Amino acid sequence: MRLVQALERAREGEHLTVVEGLAWLSQLCVREVIVNGKMADWTIPEPRADVKRLLEKAGVKLPKRLASDGRRVHTKTRLRRKRVSR
């Protein structure tokens, strides 16, 4: 909810909807830096000019890099179903 509110304020004068702003932000990525076969850290590339302007208006400051503790996050884990089968 806070992200939507921040985008509502930040999009003034930009001629875009909140949905479009979210689509822009979804294109942000992180690069994995691997040294000697091991993950060292992540870097955040410079965003496009329009995304950068949107982030500045929202008051968001991205770091240049993120430190890694070496752990991997697996996002393709199946969740247990809590639904009752019929």
What's the short version?
The protein is of the alpha+beta class and 86 residues long. The chain has helices at residues 2-10, 18-25, 49-58; strands at 31-35, 38-43, 65-67. α1 (2-10) crosses α3.
Nearest-angstrom radius of gyration?
18 Å
Give the fraction of residues assigned to helices.
25-40%
Q: How much strand content do the residues show?
A: 15-25%
Counting structural domains, the number is 1
Quote the average pLDDT. 77
Low-confidence stretches: none
Which structural category fits the helices and strands?
Answer: alpha+beta
Number of helices: 3
The total count of strands amounts to 3
Describe the biggest sheet?
3 strands, antiparallel
Strand order of the largest sheet: 1-2-3
Order of helices and strands: HHEEHE
Q: What is the distance, rounded to the nearest whole angstrom, between the alpha carbons of the first and last residues?
A: 35 Å
Q: What overall geometry do the principal axes of the alpha carbons give?
A: flat
Classify the oligomer. single chain
Question: Could you outline the blueprint of secondary structure elements for this entry?
Answer:
Layout: H1 2-10, H2 18-25, E1 31-35, E2 38-43, H3 49-58, E3 65-67
Antiparallel strand pairs: 1-2, 2-3
Helix pairs in contact: 1-3
